[in-house]
Amino acid sequence: MIRTAYHSVGLIFFLGLLLLFSGCEQNSNANLSGIYVAYHQLSPDFKQDVLQYSVEANYSVSEVEFTATGDESGQTIKINGEPVPSGLSRMVPLEVGDNQFEIQVTASDKATQQTYQVTITRLDEAASGITVHVQQPANWENVFMWFDQHVDGSWETHTLGEPPGDMEAYRTGWYRKFFADTETVEFIFNDGVTWDHKIGAHPDDTNFIANSDVWIVLEEEIQPGRWTGTISTVDPEEN
Which candidate, 173, 176, 122, 124, places its Cα nearest to that of 147? Predict the structure, then answer.
């Protein structure tokens, strides 16, 4: 009986070690599961086996939130040579022109490595065109833009809720859209779902026209979901 007890204890101990070491198994997976540049679009869309990406940022964007997430635990990630935890977001400064980010992933076997490259191009001030910013109504899920980029009657937006009228959410309660090589743009907003919800120029609920960077601030809800807004060349959150 004593011998049987010892055998049972030994078996349990052996199984425990087996489970412990199996949980620490190393492998050669050096893939990322995602690369995230806040409020900006990777080109092309992220895929684990695609190693080079580009992002374009307006001149007004002096820093972005950057995140690289490993495909599994046990990997080591370095961004431009600096070790960073998987999935940790951090702000990175941007200079005008190309900003290179090299993401080196080392698998848990400590031998297999793979390097992803992201180039974020911050546009020059003179080439930045016009950026239109708009305040989001509290009862809208997003903001959609109907626009004529050169005020020549050829409206680029043709379908409600579909590109190119989509806008970028860039801070809480605000959306924006950049128009390159543009001197004047005419536009109006809706929620991308129905024309009954829209933002027009105060007080006549008509189209806006801008020839420089502008901020559209909500003025009055004249009907449920239907707003007028005022146009400003100064960011209201910096006043």
Answer: 176
* The length of the chain, given as a count of residues: 239
Which residue range(s) make up the domain with 140? Answer: 129-238
pTM of this prediction?
0.53
Task: Report d(CA 127, CA 58) in Å as an integer.
Answer: 9
Confidence band for 21, pLDDT divided at 50, 70 and 90: very low
Looking at the structure, do residues 234 and 133 belong to the same domain, yes or no? Answer: yes
H, E, C per residue of 124-159: CHHHCCEEEEEECCCCCCCCEEEEECCCCCCCCCCC
Residues 113, 116, 118: CA angle, nearest 5 degrees: 160
**Any alpha helices (H) in the chain, and if so which ranges?**
2-23
Task: Indicate the number of domains in the chain.
Answer: 2
